[in-house]
Amino acid sequence: MSAQPLIFKLEKLLRLNQQLLKLAEAKTEALKKEDLAVLQQTLKQEHICVSAIKLAEKERIPLTSAYLGRDHDLTLSACIEKAEGEDKVQFAQLLSALTDVMDKLKHANKLNQQLTVQALQFVSLSLDMLMPKEESPAYKPPGLSAAAQPKRKSLFDSKA
């Protein structure tokens, strides 16, 4: 089997992962600016992009299997070992490019995770400052029954 269909599929995977990286960087900026509208739109686009990557990967597997002539060890490294000439060079370039994009994507996702955790901590701290803490359920001031104790009001409706 010719390596070209597999190379085209790998190039498509590379483009999709580069697009995902751009979305991760846009998400970072949205988190920094606290722009929820942009963040929501970016998350929707990210979901679509991830679905496209999954589909392209499912299409890549049978192409790789046919190219290598086996059903196991369907890696890009195995394709490089089998390939010759220009195909070998293209596979090596794709491996390098995909590895680079994946490393950048991993770093961007880690940063986004940290920014999200910080935002959640800020929201939690803000809520704690707005709402006083409840007294310990075990402590009751002398002369006050449980019904007479003031109740903490919640910003959220727990029945919803």
From TrEMBL:
Provide one Gene Ontology biological process annotation: bacterial-type flagellum assembly
Instruction: Please give the start and end residues of each transmembrane region.
Output: none
Gene3D superfamilies, A to Z:
FlgN-like (1.20.58.300)
Q: Has the keyword Translocase been applied to this entry?
A: no
Q: Which Pfam families match?
A: FlgN
Keyword Amino-acid biosynthesis carried by entry? no
Tell me the segments the record calls region Disordered. 134-160
Task: Print the keywords alphabetically.
Answer: Bacterial flagellum biogenesis
Source organism, top-level taxon: Bacteria
Species of origin: Metabacillus indicus
Against InterPro entries, the record matches this protein to:
FlgN-like, FlgN-like_sf
Q: What is this protein called?
A: Flagellar protein FlgN
